[in-house]
Amino acid sequence: MQIGFNLPQFGSHAHRPEGVAMFARQAEEMGADSLWVGDRLLAPLEPEINYPGTTAFPTEFRAGLDPFATLTVAAVVTTRPLLGSSVLITPWYAPALLARSLATIDQLSGGRVIAGLGAGWAPEEFRSVGIPIAERGRRLDECLDALAAFWSTNPVDHKGAFWTTAASYVDIKPVQRPGPPVYMPASTSTSINRVARRANGFLPAVAPGPFEPTTITTPMARIRDAAARAGRDPDELDVILRVNTKAGDSVDSIAETILRARDEAAVNHAFVDLTFRDRATSVEHAVDLAGRVLGLVRAQ
After folding, report:
1. Nearest 5°: phi and psi at 196?
2. What is the C-alpha separation between 59 and 45, in angstroms, rounded?
3. Sign of CA dihedral 163, 167, 172, 178
4. pLDDT at 55 exceeding the cut of 80
5. Which positions ≥6 away from 246 have C-beta within 8 Å?
6. Which residues form the Luciferase-like domain (predicted)?
7. 98/164 Cα distance (integer angstroms)
């Protein structure tokens, strides 16, 4: 089973950016299979929608390093772990720029990028980048079309409702062809069908504690059914599970969640987000937590 961890990107870690390289190197040395970033812009004082699973907007999101720069650091100081995003808020980005950034990181890393893409949900963030949140689904769909064009064809030629690229040469392509694998979360019929038609896999999330495998297996079955109806091989789609930890979660409970996901939901790749478990502590502590989780999982 592949096990990964989020990079120290948010909260107190954002004020110690040298910790990104430190964590990435040591996680690789310990045997971590993947390293991950998120995508948050700000922490509104009076949010219209609270962060999922909380009654407020987490203070950790008052400070966050840029996801592309953070992945780039990890790319140049490691040689083996996959480099993922969970998730980039795709409607914020012009596809030409997003394609270039991800292709560059894929080149720098020798073909290790996993493009975790999502529609986003925080109204304040959308307003801050000047993108109507009501357009997020349509922009995400068009961006997927444009990324496919930028990554696989030359000359690139894309005409859409939101962006247009005249026939142009774009010679920097990802190492991975036709492009980095795309993974997306899915909770609605629309998003399930989008994963089934457009993605390489599903990005669910769980928290340590009582584990219910159907939170993963039920939507995955729907995705595979929709993929088959769309003419795809459903067995080509897989799962990467995000384990969202919080303060007080024990290392034993985190490891148990990963192992149960493996044994009861056929999850072969999971990564642990320590953002809230490791709040206001050092990068060295995050490295220690990651090593302990890896040790417990690898022992089973």
Report:
1. -60, -40
2. 10
3. positive
4. no
5. 207, 276, 277
6. 16-264
7. 14
What is the end-to-end Cα distance of the chain in Å, rounded?
Answer: 10
Task: Tell me what pLDDT residue 279 has.
Answer: 72
Contact status, residue 171 vs residue 104, Cβ threshold 8 Å:
no
Tokens of 92: 């914020």
> Beta strands of the chain (E only): which ranges?
2-6, 34-37, 82-85, 88-89, 113-118, 156-159, 164-168, 182-184, 201-202, 205-206, 238-239, 241-244, 269-273
Tokens encoding 237 = 């789609």
According to the model, what pLDDT value does residue 280 have?
A: 66
The amino acid that residue 161 corresponds to is A
pLDDT at position 137 is: 97
Q: Is the preceding peptide bond at 58 cis, omega within 30 degrees of 0? A: no
Q: Count Cβ atoms below 10 Å from residue 103 Cβ, excluding itself.
A: 22
- Taking only the tens place, the pLDDT of each residue in 223-269 is 999 999 999 999 999 999 999 999 899 999 999 999 999 999 999 99
Residue 203 is which amino acid? L
User: Which residues face 135 on adjacent strands?
Assistant: none
Q: Which residues of 205-216 are buried (b: 16+ CB within 10 A; e: fewer)?
A: bbbbeebeeeeb
State pLDDT tens for residues 92-145: 999 999 999 999 999 999 999 999 999 999 999 999 999 999 999 999 999 999
Instruction: State the sign of the Cα–Cα–Cα–Cα dihedral 90, 115, 41, 257.
Output: positive
pLDDT given at position 240: 98
19-38 pLDDT per residue, tens: 999 999 999 999 999 999 99
Q: Round to whole Å and give the CA distance between 124 and 140.
A: 18
- Provide the phi-psi class of 111: left if phi over 0, else alpha when psi is between -120 and 50, else beta: left
Strand partners, 41: none
